[in-house]
# Entry
Amino acid sequence: MSEDNNAQAREPVTGMDAPIYLQYQFTAGRAPSRFLHALKQGRLTGQRCPGCSQVYIPPRGSCPACGIATDEEVTLSNKATVQSFTIVYIPIPGNPIKPPYIVANLVPDGANISFIHLLSDCVNEEVHIGQRVEAVWKPAQEWDYKMDNILYYRPLEEPDVPVELIGRLPVEGWEGQA
Amino acid sequence: MAQLAAVIGTGQTRYKTRRGDVSIAGLLREAAVNALEDAGLGFEDIDAVVIGKAPDMFEGIVMPECYLADALGANGKPMLRVHTAGSVGGSTALVAASHVQSGTFRRVLTVTFEKQSESNAMWALSTPQPFAVHLNAGAGGYFAPIIREYMRRSGAPYDVGIKVAVKDRLHGARNPLAHLQKPDITLQEVEESMMLWDPIRLLEACPSSDGACAMVIAAEDAVDSSPRPPAWIRGGAMRSEPTMYAGREEVNPRAGRDCAADVYAQAGIRDPRRELDCAEIYVPFSWYEPMWLENLGFAEEGQGWRLTMEGATSMDEGGDIPWNPSGGVLSSNPIGASGMIRFAEAARQVRGDAGAHQVEGARLAMGHAYGGGAQFFAMWIVGADKP
# Structure
């Protein structure tokens, strides 16, 4: 080995690319399968816990608080309430969504728990807790077993929901509120 | 707890964005050797090894225990790996402690680590999930709405998080191991830093660090090898709860309140603010200081931000209950180790070993970690006095 090669051999290797690819075959199970089938038909569904009467979306087949099986299916509304939200500014490599965008914790009417979705078609600075929003679905021919069937949620011209009622509106929304 | 146990050695690495000079095994070994030296022991004196790290795609298989057994001198000894997301550093310390408290082992080495430069825990935790839209929001995207709800219900002024961000970096400037060294940081600098996940700004968020932390925990009859006094474990507790359930209190999680009540009861503490001398609390986003001040009973609900604004948690303002004298997670965040750093720094304080960030006369301190969707909690109280 020459002097040059020796010097090179003493250089530490401090990094090399070693990409890992992961493919995962997800078994949805019975309750989520029903949820996914309804989603493919353009419907949001949840399941009610027979113990605490709370309605879960997405349903996973049991209530995480009570630990008992849920099987009563409930069709939920396209209307929802903003429980909280963040405006995402952080640039993320390969992100198809262009910042700033709003990720909101939304509770659909008829459910008692939030999920996250995009809030769009709005003035970011005017988004607030308790705001009423509705789902904007893709064209029916594009529906798949995915929450992405809903493109985003957009603001609705309805009175705000007071904080103590967020997560408690019936499926009829404000109209069903006694 | 059946038998007494104490921390007799702590060891850490310098925390940095990238430790290209060592492999993962080398990084852990550095912390382990430092802890053994501090304890006045060698690998041959250790009876069992307990390790922990946060989830990522390490080796593609997430089985660091297989790869690291020899580097940690675990040949022929029991080795166990603990895994509770971001709280893992704390729960690993508690599992190691219970190995000794049960009377099964006399001296246990425990090590936690993260080499974020070689993978990326945050984005590994943000993979697409079935049933959910993939919005690429990361850890800050998860916690920002919870912080927003805290701000709403407490009515706290907008700059509480900014104040915490400055305070912890000034503490970190006293700690030569801290990743971020910002002795000249100002409120204005934090306020003008880029908004990442409104309301979380760049300088209100933790960095991504490489680093490892280790401790040696010994039984009552094995504490004398170290030249420094032991940090007696006065209480230890863990709690968990599901990420999501209807009506879950996300701002002030019940698992955190229950865990604190348990650990205080073990240590005989009624008023943590008055009875503890300092605390190392897991605050990865600045607003979690006021939120945890309330969750852990240092302040009434809705009042935690007042302690922060009054300077009660600041060493530089002469506060009565310094939080994160080491600079905390906001100054260094090798995720898997971050919880154990809190536990080890609490031990350093009561051993009088904390150097320029020593809280004068500290005799009773708390270490705290949380993880997942603020659903796993681990806490301990360590003291200079033998219980």
In short: Chain B has a mean pLDDT of 94. The first strand of chain B starts at residue 5 and ends at 12. Chain B is about 35% helix and 20% strand. The two ends of chain B are 12 Å apart (CA to CA).
